[in-house]
Amino acid sequence: MKTLTDPHGNEIYYQGLGPEAGQLPAFFYFALSGEDSLELPPYNSPASLLEGEPLRVYSITIPGHGPGHDKFHAMQYWADQIAQENYILKTFFDKAASSIEWLIKEGYVDPNHIAVGGLSRGAFVAAHVAARNTRIKTVLGFAPLTRLGELNEFASVEQSTRVKIRASALDLEHLVDQLTHVHHLRFYIGNRDERVSTDACYHFIRRLADKAHEIRARHMNIELRITHSIGHKGHGTTPQIFAEGIGWLKEQLR
Question: What confidence tens digit (pLDDT) does each residue in 83-101 have?
Answer without folding.
Answer: 999 999 999 999 999 999 9
